[in-house]
Amino acid sequence: MIGTATEISGSTQMSKPRVTAVSADIDPAWGLAFWGDAAWDTETPLMLDIQASLDGGATFTSMILGRTDRVVVHVEKGIVQATGRDLASLLIDASASMADYQNRTSSQIATDLAAGHGLSADVTETDVMVGRMYEIDHTFMAPTGTTKQWDLICSLAQREGFDVWVSGSTLHFKPQPDLGTADPYVVVWDAGQAYSNASTLSAERALTFAKDITVTVSSWHSKQGRANTATVGQKNAAAGNRFSYIFPNLDHGGCLAKATQIRAQLSAHERLVRFSRPGDLTLSARDMLRLTGTGSSWDGVFKIDSVHRSMSFDQGFTMDVQAKTPLPAGASS
Fold first, then answer.
1. How confident is the model at residue 129, as a pLDDT?
2. How confident is the model over 165-211, as pLDDT tens digits?
3. What CA–CA distance (Å, rounded) separates 273 from 313?
4. What is the C-alpha to C-alpha distance for residues 200 and 321, in angstroms, rounded to an integer?
5. What is the pLDDT of residue 329?
6. In what order do the strands lie in the sheet containing 170-175?
7. CA gap 176, 4 in Å, rounded
8. CB 123 within 8 A of CB 104
9. Are 106 and 128 a contacting pair, CB within 8 Å?
10. Among 101, 134, 164, 249, which residue's Cβ finds the most Cβ atoms within 10 Å?
């Protein structure tokens, strides 16, 4: 059995960790008839659990647990390839009626959604009702209509400054880590010895975002009967680095907060650090990375936003990691 598992940081609607496994020399009982005739559907899902052992097989750790979405049988090679998503897919595929949650807090909704799919809940308590969120900020989801459960819980995480993710069969809804107290994963580069504890190391800079970024948010506030505008950044920034957005029903303070948040999100894409090295079973997409030894402005702390682990007969157990400039406190990713 060989395979890959990708973990992506939470609190965004695009977080969809995936898992792929390939099994060679399949048992004849698992041939075309098995995959074509078996009733693999939502009632009898085909679960896929990729595990790894670093102690000679004495113990195994699950890297990702999920449901299979697609199976490809390579008949002439005797190989089955299965691809799926972690159990966040249960929420990604399910809808939620906003009317059901107006008198519930974010943490209560997270707990309810987890229970509805048979998931355990690791949830930090919050105290603001969702209906009140809409009264405060009309850019939040309207109290009517439907949305995907994953979109709902990601929006709640952004409002609360939380991270949301699924590991194994547990839904986590937790405050984002304090960047000042987080214990970072260290990658070293020694130019004098041409040495690094990573197998490969690259630093990428988007020069478009290296210059000053100006963000303007405008809004017509229907209750106030007036237009509000706020700009964050240098007003003489290059034209290519000016971004304008329109949101409904924000006062001036709301426009300023939204512009500050968007500018932080854009600035986070300026610098990326990527590295690969032999795999471990502890690093996650919510950890911090410290790059050191370059003797440059690249030395510093980055937030890991994806970990891709791979197992194969020729390459062994490896992982590819990407990290970006961390957002300041209060700026949800």
1. 80
2. 999 999 999 998 776 666 899 999 998 888 999 999 999 988 877 67
3. 27
4. 10
5. 43
6. 120-123, 170-175, 162-167
7. 27
8. no
9. yes
10. 164
| Domains defined along the chain, listed by start | 2-86 (no CATH), 91-175 (3.55.50), 180-282+324-333 (no CATH)
DSSP letters spanning 77-142: GTEEEEEEEETTHHHHS-EEEGGGSTTSBHHHHHHHHHHHTT-EEEE-----BHHHHHHH-TTSPP
Longest Cα–Cα distance of the chain, Å, equals: 72
**Structure token pair of residue 123:** 């949830």
Confidence of residue 18 (pLDDT cuts 50, 70, 90): low
Contact 260, 180 (CB under 8 A): no
Strands 214-221 and 242-246: parallel
Question: How far lies 237's CA from each of 205, 215, 241, 325, in Å?
Answer: 19, 10, 6, 21
Amino acid at 328: P
